[in-house]
Structures are given as C-alpha cells and as structure tokens.
Amino acid sequence: MSVADDKRRLRRIRQELRSAPRRAPGKIRAEINVTPLVDVVLVLLIIFMVVTPIIASGVPIELPWTVHHDRKPDDGKDIIISVTKEKHVYVFGRPAADARDVTRMVEEERRKHPDKAAFIKGDRQTPYGAVRDVMEAAHKAGLSDVMLGTEETKVNQP
C-alpha cells in the first residue's frame, strides 16, 4: 500500500461519516446502561449472603416446643441469655462463668438501657435447675420482665 492509497481510503471514510444521518443539535439521547447496575446488585447480594449468617450467629440452642406459642417480634431490645444442654451460659453470645457473672453482665446492660427485658433461651435438653438459676440471676440484676424462648409446634408434631 502506498501513501496515496491511504489518503484515498481516509477521504472515503470522512465522506461516509459526513453523509451519516445526524441527530438534531438540541436533542439528547438518553440510554441507560444496565450492566453496571446489575453488577452492583449482584455484589450487594453476595455481601448480604455472606454477612447475614455472621449477624444471626449465636449460641446454637434447640428450644423446647409449645403448642400455644405467643409470638413477640424481635426488636433487638431484649437481653438474650442462652443456656446450652451442657449448662454453659451466654449473655449476648459472651460466655458467663457462673450465676454471679450473669447478674453482673445483666446489670451492666441494664445501666446502659434500663427498659430492656430478658429473653432466656434454654436448650430443651437442659435440666430445669440450670435455667432456673439463670432466671434467679436475672431477677437479682433487677429484671422483672423475663421471657422464656420456645419453638411453635403443630399438634401432630413430636
């Protein structure tokens, strides 16, 4: 190819560009590119899928079943005390050594938020005495509103 051929080809391209239909000078052409939006939504979905189990994680407890189950929405205002089947006690997921430790941790939380109630989640295989000791410790901390966590069951379920 020579320089002359290149010049001819450039002239022809310029003419084609000049003869192409043009839009009106004041007209705005609005197009939405959806690809970045989809990318952002997928990233947020992945983030929520990873973070949700971390937020909802707590002490694994198998709650006892009840037929007449009163539902109370979780508003995040309750002091959650968990008792495992091995009689280990946790307040907000932090281990408590004994009943005095539970009383101390509940009192600390009550100082920050005096209107909180206690929600005790006792494993269904935990001896009653262990849960009763935790209830007594919560009562010593000044809590008068103590709720026991249960799972709702249907009549034909075990």
Q: Any overview of this molecule?
A:
By secondary structure, this protein is of the alpha/beta class. The chain has a domain at 65-152: Nucleotidyltransferase, domain 5 (2-Layer Sandwich), CATH 3.30.420.270. It has helices spanning 3-19, 34-56, 99-112, 128-140, and strands at residues 65-66, 79-83, 89-91, 94-96, 118-122, 146-148, 151-152. The chain has a five-stranded mixed beta sheet with strand order 4-3-2-5-6, covered by helices on one side. Strands 1-7 form a two-stranded parallel ribbon. A hairpin with a 5-residue loop joins strand 2 (79-83) and strand 3 (89-91). The protein starts with a helix and ends in a 6-residue tail after the last strand.
Secondary structure topology:
Layout: H1 3-19, H2 34-56, E1 65-66, E2 79-83, E3 89-91, E4 94-96, H3 99-112, E5 118-122, H4 128-140, E6 146-148, E7 151-152
Parallel strand pairs: 1-7, 2-5, 5-6
Antiparallel strand pairs: 2-3, 3-4
The appropriate CATH architecture of the domain at 65-152 is 2-Layer Sandwich
Strand order of the largest sheet: 4-3-2-5-6
Q: Provide the CATH top-level class of the domain at 65-152.
A: Alpha Beta
**How many DSSP-defined strands?**
7
CATH level 3 topology of the domain at 65-152? Nucleotidyltransferase, domain 5
Please give the count of helices: 4
* Computed Rg: 33 Å
β-sheet strand percentage: 5-15%
Apparent shape: rod-shaped
Oligomer: single chain
The main β sheet shows up as: 5 strands, mixed
Distance between the termini: 88 Å
Q: SSE string, helix = H, strand = E? A: HHEEEEHEHEE
Q: Any low-confidence stretches, pLDDT <50, length ≥5?
A: none
Structural class determined from secondary elements: alpha/beta
The overall pLDDT, averaged over residues, is: 83
